[in-house]
Amino acid sequence: MSIESLPSGPASIPARRTVIAAVGATGLAAALTACGGGSDKAAGSDSAKPAGGAAGGTVLGKTSDIPQGGGKIFADQGVVVTQPTAGQFKAFSSKCTHQGCAVSSVSGGTINCPCHGSKFDVVDGSVKGGPAPSPLPAAAISVEGGSIKLA
Prior knowledge:
Layout lengths: L15 H19 L24 E4 L8 E4 L4 E4 L7 E4 L11 E3 L2 E3 L6 E3 L5 E3 L11 E4 L2 E4 L1
Antiparallel strand pairs: 1-10, 2-3, 3-4, 5-6, 6-7, 7-8, 9-10
């Protein structure tokens, strides 16, 4: 086929608006797909579950392993357990709400993320510093005797 045999004229060339609209729609679809997260669950529907998806009833450790005013990270189960005051145990996701990094330490009354410096309160998981936009989600635990278990 030669160039001379190709159709020409206004009917064969898409209008500028058509091309711009198609490119814009494609870009929007790609952006929405990338931000989708790939889950059909409603936002926050699993906030009481550990980030690692560990089964309920899994023994995390002994109450004596959790320092008062501090905490311990259970990376395999995706939770951090704290003891804000004597005998009071709390648990939160160990996944930072900023960009999903795993928190790395508990000290000075905060749960600390190494990636961008976010800090979360050991009492309620609220943001105490850094770029994190929201608190660490609570995780359900139970304390039976001297053992801490995922609920």
